[in-house]
Design goal:
Distance between the termini: 56 Å
Cofactor: Mg(2+); Mn(2+)
Bound molecules: manganese (II) ion
InterPro entries: Fan1-like, FAN1-like_WH, tRNA_endonuc-like_dom_sf, VRR_NUC
Number of helices: 27
Mean pLDDT: 94
GO molecular function, one term: 5'-flap endonuclease activity
Largest sheet: 5 strands, mixed
Number of strands: 8
Low-confidence stretches: 1-6
Number of domains: 3
Catalytic activity: Hydrolytically removes 5'-nucleotides successively from the 3'-hydroxy termini of 3'-hydroxy-terminated oligonucleotides
Radius of gyration: 30 Å
Oligomer: single chain
Protein name: phosphodiesterase I
Shape: globular
Strand order of the largest sheet: 4-8-7-6-5
Helix content: 40-55%
Length: 559
Amino acid sequence: MADTLREQAPPLLAPFYYRDNFQRLCDTVESRYQDLLSAAERDVLRRWRGLPLPAQCLYVRLVSRVGPWFRDDKLAYPELGDIGAALAALDAAGLLLRTADPGWPELERLFTLAEWRRAFAAELNTAPGQGKAELLAAAAALDWSPARYADCLLASTGGALVAPAELEVVELLQLLFFGNRRQGLTDFVLSDLGIANYYPYALDREQRLFSCREAVAEYQGWSQLADDYWILREAEDSEGLRALADLLLVSPLQYDTSAQRYWKLCNRLARELERQGELPLAGELYARSELHPARERLARVLEAAGDWAAARDQCQLILAGPWCEEEYEAAARILPRVCRRLGESVPARRRDTFTTLQLQLPRSDEAVELAVAHYLAPHWQAVHYVENSLMNSLFGLAFWEQIFAPVPGAFHHAFQSAPADMYQQGFRTRREEMLARRLAQLRNGPLLPELLAACRRYRGYDCRWVDWRLLDETLLWQLLCCIPAPQLLAVWERMLFDPGENRRGFPDLIALGEREGDYCLIEVKGPGDQLQDSQRRWLRFFADQGIPAQVARVVWCDD
DNA sequence: ACCAAACACGCAGCA
DNA sequence: TAGTAATATG
DNA sequence: TGCTGCGTGTTTCATATTACT
Ligand SMILES: [Mn+2]
Ligand SMILES: [Mn+2]
């Protein structure tokens, strides 16, 4: 009864919203990158704009769906009226492809098991219990010409095969709009629905991500090779992987825009080659990469190859100018090993000693972190299982304005939850002054009102750092009551030093008391779990700063 | 920050 | 027929 | 014991429909 009386909520999205989204994307790219588009590509846009509304809509539907081929008889869009007419309009504008032979894999996908059965009832003995894979194998064994299969199926089901033309142009437009390959038209929808809620930062319309068409082509080239890499790895084609490495080694890197992609691919491929024992080739790839962990892996490759002297030199190169703390520590671990091999003496590395709490707890179903939290609960006001999310969220609140500051090149489009350079060294250097001012401001005033204000002002907006499910004003009040401001500031400064590296490794639990200084960060270690390097680094830092932290080592008492 | 990832846990093999 | 994976959708 | 590599689980918008086993 209540259900029938409840008013229908108005639809969140306008009719044909997807056409409008596509048009927004096209307009933006065309005005921003007109000189990077060829005459043929601009003509595709012109032709799409000239279509009647239902045909425009259908084109957007088709390029958004898994294809490339579709059966026209299965296109069901009642709101578009006569689908045949829309297809004819697309055809006339050169935006539709038709085929009598889409290739075997597409046929497998386009027709259901029942349709295959019916179409091949005469040619094959099709038992009802037979699965699709078996039936397809039996059909393939007929060894017909490729087109004959399609003829047979279509003769049985009716309909024809169609595909949207100029898919590559659509992909190009999306790449130019977003600057990456993972975002697309769905991001418009999620934003309109409020599922994603992006902060209204100032967009940078001056700085273009791609300076020229060659830069775009280079980016697309590395993307293609990355795709090839996954296919080759999936197929366990070691010959192909070696060929890919050779190709990568003779391809020069010319544009900064795609450097990260190139280096990432070098690192990934090299790591796979390492596993296959191709050490020299892996080493060459690592030498091409300027992205961690390339230099560390090269040191390990040299060590594994028995080239102790080169491995030692590589470690010393890293130690003299590390890219990050992780790299420095790796080099500091490898160096003594190779020096021993060379008969050289090295000073022993000091071992970490962290305050440790030994616990015997009854085995239970819940996670060991929660078991410890429950064990500790009676002794504290509150114990929260937060890992990285708490300190990261506080960091986001404290530096929200700096994170979303309109720095050149930071925000290319309206669907970002962090600036483009968030995890690069340049993040800090490009915002040196405003970060210094913000730190001074936070040092001079009480923190709680600042954080409460930020929490209220920005609540709900997407930020890579902030988990709004965790934060509420009570928690902030409790936290700021217990954690002395200088200690929070020290943590934030370390996070600012390397936001990419220092966003992880925070302890599992935070236990809160009632007075300033009355709190503890606790890393839980179950049987068999070791402290990770990132966790060690934070624990060392906490010890240096006098921030209360402990490692809780749990053993199960079975009886 | 590319659900082709990032993160943390948990184990095995090796000195 | 229930459980699953993939797909399309807003 | 420390170091290393490798495999695992968790987490991604939420919901309806379709196809398959
Ligand atoms: Mn943890
Ligand atoms: Mn832990």
